[in-house]
Amino acid sequence: MNLKKVLSFLFLLITLNCVAQNSVTTISTKTGTHYITNAIDFPIAGTYLFQGAEPIVELNNNGTGIYQLHELPKRAMIWGLECNESGALKFIKGFDNVAYTLWYQYTASSDSDSDTHWNEVPFSIHFNTKKMFIQGERMKDYSGTIEK
Questions:
Q1: Residue 110 has what pLDDT?
Q2: Alpha-carbon torsion (57, 135, 39, 125), positive or negative
Q3: Could you tell me which of 99, 92, 97 has the C-alpha nearest to residue 128?
């Protein structure tokens, strides 16, 4: 009977390890190796607008999206927020905000070699105004509460 319980427990443990996804991705950048994740506990997904219009940044929950630079077309990309090896987000806490590093890489190739590199931009959440910013200029409102 005890052997049956132990085997059941081992089977459950192995199954959970196989099904669980590692939400941390290792990337190589000009500044070295970094870790990113898009398994975020707050509503980061959505469209970030520049003064209410284009250019935009669109983040999807699955780590894909669109990044549009000024006066250039929209381009598909993959993204993640910087974290440590275990998936804990790296951030700087301010008085009423918190700042993260957003890494993105274009998925469609072009003639430029720089498109194959990972790019970092600041991402911040401002609790009093309930706004999120990418590069300090692309903005999205959010509702509800996010832990400081």
A1: 61
A2: negative
A3: 97
CA 103/CA 80 separation, integer angstroms: 5
Q: Which pTM does this prediction carry?
A: 0.80
Low-confidence ranges of the chain (pLDDT < 50): 3-21
Question: With the CA atoms of 145, 133, 42 and 83 taken in that order, what torsion angle do they form, in degrees rounded to the nearest 10?
Answer: -130
Indicate if the alpha-carbon torsion angle 138, 128, 120, 26 is positive or negative.
negative
Angstrom distance (rounded) from CA 9 to CA 148? 38
Which residues 6+ apart lie within 8 Å of 58 measured at CB?
A: 46, 47, 48, 65, 66, 67
Cis bond before residue 122 (omega within 30° of 0): no
- Give the list of residues 6+ apart from residue 123 with CB closer than 8 angstroms, or none: 44, 81, 99, 100, 101, 102, 132, 133, 134
Close Cβ partners of 56 (under 8 Å, ≥ 6 residues apart):
47, 48, 49, 50, 66, 68, 74, 138
- Looking up tokens 């707050």, which residue turns up? 42
pLDDT digits (tens, 9 = 90+) for 122-147: 999 999 999 999 999 999 999 877 76
CA 82 and chain centroid, separation: 7
CA 47 vs CA 52, 119, 124, 132: distances in Å? 10, 19, 15, 10
